[in-house]
Amino acid sequence: MAGFVAASPSSYHAAHALADALTRAGFIGHDEASAWDPAAAESRGFVVRDGALIAWRAGQDVSATSPVRILGAHTDSPGFVLKPQPDFVSDGWAQAGVEIYGGPLLNSWLDRDLGFAGRVVTRDGAEHLVHTHAVARIPQLAIHLDRDANKGLTLDRQRHTQPVLATTAGVSVYSLLADAANHAPAGTFTETASARLAADPRGVVAEDIVGTDVRLYDTQGAARIGAAGEFFASARLDNLSSTFAGLVALIEAEPAPGTISMLAAFDHEELGSDTRSGASGPFLAEVLDRLRAGLGATVEDTARANSASWCLSADAGHSVHPNYPEKHDPHVRPLAGRGPMLKVNANQRYATDAHGAALWAGVCATAGVATQEFVSNNTVPCGSTIGPLTATRLGIRTVDVGVPLLSMHSARELAHVDDLHGLARAVGAFYERA
């Protein structure tokens, strides 16, 4: 898990890390713009779209009416994204313009050693994955200059969140990104980018960069902490925890005969998923259509397959916080270390229903994994997940689950290692369930 998080400072890196792991496990990558072999649905494969990935693994004797078992997750996390024309100077400090992405805990990003990570596109259309070392910091105002800071810190989302890079005029964020592109590890370029670098020994220069999808990331590595080493402290546990569990389970668990196991790792969940690579977009439906076309499925066959299919929408949830116990339901009290959670909401912010609860209880029992329930305090509305979106788009029964966290949406979140392992085992049992 720590290695996967380190390799995934952005959603684009996460999709690449997933693709790399799947390739090493014998899965075949597919190009969306090329014709697919009709036998693709009967094998192991994956396809990447921007910062999202969908992978599948067929069980024995799949057919046009074979149901799918989907683990749905997301690759993005709240934070900060680089703005266009990012370079500016304020009172002698070289800074970078950033925009807030999703709903981060802003104060958690203060005084951290930050880098830039994501993708850049050059004039020839080549895409490059990039990540820098620690080059930035969002500095907090000293207590001497704000004596009331500990009474309640208020941050202006524009003025107080722009990182400093240097005290030297002329520092260019694009130059930092170009240097990162030229020193990226082998295998992290697209074919177009690799051909371009082979043809031009200069590599990428700042003036070549015409498009960026780049974010800040915390350069501190994940670590096991706690008195007994039972906690896992890391960036982006929401929702790389679920994404990694799905990856491990897809590789290790044999699909039930006549079923197709799938991992759908979407982007942009923290923004509402309304993008071409988000759960509200067409990505999953298009992949399912292409696979079923290879199996000769008719409209009738597809409807039958969907009616027998399931999606586990796996996204991190909240453990009871010992310093804010009143924020949680007074009776349903999930705790870190007591197993992944079944997430329930009467207003369908989560897609779990009674049948979904029964399915989850069954897979956890099969896997020998403890589980617990999460429901919100009525005065504290909960967020949502890809679960209701997937259920709405495809009509596939969906159940929401996830590991309990402390400090969700912080730059550094906290989970229990037993819950992380338990989620992967439960997903494996879900894939193996007939």
Automatic annotation (TrEMBL):
Cofactor(s) the record lists: Zn(2+)
Gene3D superfamilies attached to this UniProt entry: Aminopeptidase i, Domain 2, Zn peptidases
Gene Ontology biological process: proteolysis
Entry superkingdom: Bacteria
EC numbers for this chain: 3.4.11.-
GO cellular component: cytoplasm
Keywords: Aminopeptidase, Hydrolase, Metal-binding, Metalloprotease, Protease, Zinc
Molecular function GO terms recorded: aminopeptidase activity; metallopeptidase activity; zinc ion binding
SUPFAM superfamilies, sorted: Aminopeptidase/glucanase lid domain (SSF101821), Zn-dependent exopeptidases (SSF53187)
Keyword Zinc-finger assigned: no
Keyword presence, Metal-binding: yes
Entry-linked NCBIfam families: PRK02813.1 (NF002759)
Family designation: Belongs to the peptidase M18 family.
Name of the protein described by the UniProt record: M18 family aminopeptidase
Classification of source organism: Bacteria, Bacillati, Actinomycetota, Actinomycetes, Micrococcales
